[in-house]
Amino acid sequence: MEKEQVDLKFRLYNIIFDKKKRHNIFQKFKSQHFIFKFIQTYNQETDIVFIFTVFNIIFVSVFDFKLLCRFNSSDLKDIEYVYSEYYNRVEFLRFSSRVDWYTGYTEFGLREANIANNDTDRLTRRRMMKQHYCLQHVHMWYKNALNRTMTPEAVLTSTAPSGGSQRLFTCSTFGFFPRSISISWTINQQPHTSEVSSTDTLPDGDWLYQAHSQLSYSPRFRDRVSCWVEHAALRDALEVPWEPVSHGDRNKIAIGISGSVLGLVLALSGVLYYCKRRKGESGLVPVNSEL
């Protein structure tokens, strides 16, 4: 077995530098069954990685594999190890530590998943990869990212749809990390859950995220509508109240009222001055020049 492994590995390595050999065996390597049997010859993880690298150099998109570590919190309790195999960019076999089992996605993949799930040694080695591949390296690779937090920015807006009595309130949060966030609503300080819809948390670029929540509601006079944002970067929940008149509109109204009052005062002063002058002129006695 060891001699066969060395021989196959040596032949594969030399294929990279020999176009004639590469052309002659291309049809043979296109066989899914041959590739899988070839990989089974190598039961060492390091050898498999080497072989897959050579496959990718020689036959782009014929056969490929991926190793993933998925997690969304720094304690890594929810970390998931995923191993996937692809043929012509189509995934046919996957192992997930969350399912703890191989799953096939094609006819060939179903057969191989059945073989793998009945191979105790192979299944045990794959299960151990969560510890060896993910848990041992994630802290080192993502130490800075895991400890990083960014406070969300939140904005509450509202629109009145034409022909409807309900207003649509939208609470938007931007630029936060980590990904997990909670947006809730209150009306007059009481929790409100009906007529509420939310989007999934979406990437905002540079490891940051955004999320949105909407509320349909017909506000009454003096109703206090607020959205509340809870996030790991916030010490306390952030309240974002709805202001029927925005600060900008309030400033415009204040300036308009001030201008109107000033104009009214000036106009009144002008009228008083004019009336006083008319009264003074009517009280004068003309002087006779002949006297």
Automatic annotation (TrEMBL):
Localization of this protein: Membrane
Transmembrane segments: 48-69, 253-274
Keywords: Disulfide bond, Glycoprotein, Membrane, Transmembrane, Transmembrane helix
Key word Nucleotidyltransferase present: no
Keyword Plastid: no
Swiss-Prot/TrEMBL GO biological process terms: antigen processing and presentation; immune response
GO cellular component, one term: MHC class II protein complex
Ranges of residues in domain Ig-like: 152-241
Membrane topology reported for the UniProt record: Single-pass type I membrane protein
Protein name: Ig-like domain-containing protein
Annotated organism of origin: Periophthalmus magnuspinnatus
Organism lineage string: Eukaryota, Metazoa, Chordata, Craniata, Vertebrata
